[in-house]
Amino acid sequence: MLDRRLFLSSFSSLGLTSTLLPGVLWAKVDAEKVQVITKEMLREACKVAGVSFSEPQLDAMLDGVNKNLAKYMEIRKTPLDNSVAPPVYFNPIVAGTKIDREKKSFRPSARPSVTRPQNLEGAAFWPVTQLAELLRTRQATSLELTQMYLARLKRYNLKLLCAVTITEDLALQQAREADKEIAAGHYRGPLHGIPYGVKDIGSVKGYPTTWGAAPFKTRVFDVDATVVDKLHAAGAVLIAKLATGELALDDQWFGGQTKNPWDLSMGSQGSSAGPGSATAAGLVGFSIGTETGGSIMEPSGICGVTGLRPTYGRVSRYGFMTLTWSLDKIGPMCRSVEDCALVLNAIQGPDEKDFTLHDIPFNWDASLDIRQLRVGYLKAAFEDTRQTPQVNANDAAALAKIRSLGVHLVEVALPKYSDLDIGVIIYGEGNAALYDPVETQPETLVRQDRVANQHSLRLLPAVEYLNAQRIRTLLMEGMARVMENIDVYILPFDYGDYTPNPVATLNTGVTNLTGHPGVCVPHGFNEKGNPTSITFIGKLFGEAKMLALAKAYQDATGWHLKHPPLFASR
Question: What is the C-alpha separation between 261 and 241, in angstroms, rounded?
Fold first, then answer.
């Protein structure tokens, strides 16, 4: 039996009407004996698609259009879970791209000297590098650290709305296991025993994975996401499923709006809102976010944490909600650049469940001489004056500081086709990926504007979607030429709606479309006392050099050591 509601909604979404009664119309299609799309309906539908045909052409098309409608209904009989991907996989590497495939030793910084604070909550804002040394030297146990962060989550979550589910039982169990192993001399590395949170579009056995959407409040998947598995193998302790904007869009979810710890009057922006907020407020040691069109970088920059968007194809997405197959990426949101490097090292690399992955080494060297790097800066973005005077001053100061580190900067510009609308691809693919609940339960969703957008792009012609992807190829080739003679380039952070910089906004779309990695780090405060940030973009699979430059800047400035006073330890 065909789905009556879907069939009828296909006409209402077109804005068309039929002179046939719905029951009669349905019966005729179900029997597949008569045409139900009239010439007038076809003519109006062509207007929606932005195409035009002659009257004889419309006459000739009519039979095929009606046959196609029956085929569409047949396709819709097959239930398709969000986890089912099309057998076409995006590859960010274009012809001629040179990738360093030689595996080298992982070279972190020297271990810091740490002393346990009298009140362990004094370590709430410590980076992973310091927390790890606290545990390795057995000045504190993972159980103590976990209980401290759990207490802070319970105390502050009602203000921030950054956690959907606190995984207390699992966290305490994993912390005790970590302590036994560390005590027995089986130390797994710098993430062993460190409490963290994962964006609530990643599945964890035994706990709800809500995608921020009301219809899924109690849904539990019987699988751990690959990233969760890899962090468990590294000994990390999962303490929370952190808030995601509904269906990975912005900071609004069924529990409310996730807040920025620096300014509770504003949201933390971007769908990795919970990871950004929780990390900034010192409620987790680090967190895992996802990005399709800005959702790691934006909340990281707004909340003053260090956010890394890896190269597309670096980190497995198995077990995470799909928004867009050819754009989704998973990465760490931390309190320092080196923390991001440590987490990326644990979660990156291929598995047998995500066929977009490349087996390319991540050769982190914290002592890399950045003066050897070829570094560009996006001149047009730095010349934009629409940001506030303080933000502009912070951008200029960041460039001056990087130059003072012995780095020669060359001008770069975004390539041709940078104005390709990323939304065509996000919503084109997202319409298929998120059929449930956008199509089946739209009235239950918070973001009705998103529902309308999804519905409108249900009419996106396949030809236009494919042509957008072809233009994307031209953009990727242009970006390859931009990156040919540089290792990294720098630009102002994209603040979205807060203090827009159109060139920075273009860059967000471009680098997500091309799959290039990016990292944002704090670089000061604006007139309101809220964090500001700067962005570094690296070559495909060039995270190591990109992060080395970002770390050198971060170490020379110390902005990442500032924390929101409302959430200071007691």
Answer: 18
pLDDT in tens, 50-94: 888 889 888 888 888 888 888 888 888 888 888 899 999 999 999
Cα–Cα distance, 136 to 141 (Å, whole number): 9
Q: Are 445 and 534 in contact (CB under 8 A)?
A: no
Report residue 71 CA to chain centroid gap: 35
Distance CA 163, CA 210 (A): 11
Give the Cα separation of 281 and 276 in Å (integer): 9
Strand pairing category for 263-267 and 259-260: antiparallel
Structure tokens at 516: 């290039």
Q: Examine the residue annotation and report whether 401 is marked as an active-site residue of this protein.
A: no
Q: What is the DSSP annotation of 332-357?
A: EEESSHHHHHHHHHHHBS--SS-TT-
Q: Which of 268, 327, 348 is nearest to 300 (CA)?
A: 268
Of the residues 295, 300, 326, 418, which is catalytic?
295
Name the band, by pLDDT with cuts 50, 70 and 90, for residue 497: low
Hey, what are 80's tokens? 């398709």
Beta partners for residue 163, in sequence order: 242
295 is annotated as an active-site residue:
yes
Which of 203, 268, 271, 272 is an active site residue? 271
Tokens of 338: 């080196």
User: Sign of the C-alpha dihedral, residues 244, 245, 246, 250?
Assistant: negative
pTM for this prediction = 0.91
> Which two three-digit tokens encode residue 341?
């490097």
Q: What is the pLDDT of residues 286-333, one digit of tens each?
A: 999 999 999 999 999 999 999 999 999 999 999 999 999 999 999 999
Tell me the one-letter amino acid at 531: P
CA gap 254, 212 in Å, rounded: 6
Q: Report CA-CA distances (Å) from 179 to 3, 112, 123, 133, 462.
A: 55, 21, 18, 14, 54
Provide the 8-state DSSP code for 110.
P
Selection from 123, 525, 534 nearest residue 297 by Cα? 534
Helix (H/G/I), strand (E/B), else coil: 560: helix
Q: Measured between alpha carbons, how far is 405 from 137 in angstroms, rounded to an integer?
A: 34
Read off φ and ψ for residue 92, nearest 5 degrees: -75, -10
Catalytic residue among 142, 199, 241, 551: 199
Kindly report the three-state secondary structure assignment for every residue of 233-294.
HCCCEEEEEECCCCCCCCCEECCEECEECCEEEEECCCCCHHHHHHHHCCCCCEEEEEECCC
Residue 54 catalytic? no
Of 264, 272, 341, residue with least CA distance to 300: 272
Helix and strand tally (H, E) in the chain? 19, 15
